[in-house]
């Protein structure tokens, strides 16, 4: 393998890694979870903190909605705290 081919191979591998990291970060930022809409027992069966805090025990949208939570991203949950 000559130097140009090897360099192109390395550049392609690095680009693939960088793109993978960026898309993973974007997915994490868009990931939704169950958050409290208000304080106390605002999510049935899960007493605790105030609005905008994550309810870790609930991992799907249907259960979150049925319990009275908000199925939102972390950024959207921050708005619930206001």
Outline of this structure?
This protein has helices spanning 3-30, 61-67, 74-80; strands spanning 32-35, 70-73. It is mainly α.
What's the topology here?
Elements: H1 3-30, E1 32-35, H2 61-67, E2 70-73, H3 74-80
Antiparallel strand pairs: 1-2
Features:
82 residues, mainly alpha
Structural commentary:
This protein has 82 residues and is mainly alpha-helical. Helices cover 51% and strands 10% of the residues. It contains 3 helices and 2 strands. The protein starts with a helix and ends with a helix. Residues 22-26 have low confidence and may be disordered.
Helix vs. strand class? mainly alpha
Q: Numbering strands along the chain, what is their spatial order in the largest sheet?
A: 1-2
**Overall strand count:** 2
Instruction: Give a quick account of the main beta sheet: strands, pairing sense, barrel closure.
Output: 2 strands, antiparallel
Number of helix segments?
A: 3
Strand content: 5-15%
The helix content is 40-55%
Rounded mean pLDDT is 73
Rounded radius of gyration (Å): 21 Å
Order of helices and strands: HEHEH
Taken from the alpha-carbon principal axes, the silhouette is elongated
Distance N terminus to C terminus?
A: 60 Å
- Unreliable stretches, pLDDT < 50, 5 or more residues? 22-26
């Amino acid at each position: 393998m000559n130097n140009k081919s090897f360099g192109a191979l390395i550049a392609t591998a690095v680009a693939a890694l960088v793109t993978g990291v960026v898309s993973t970060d974007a997915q994490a930022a868009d990931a939704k979870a169950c958050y409290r809409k208000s304080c106390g027992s605002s999510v049935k069966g899960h007493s605790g903190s105030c609005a905008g805090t994550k309810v870790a025990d609930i991992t799907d949208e249907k259960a979150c909605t049925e319990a009275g939570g908000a199925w939102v991203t972390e950024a959207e949950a921050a708005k619930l705290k206001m």
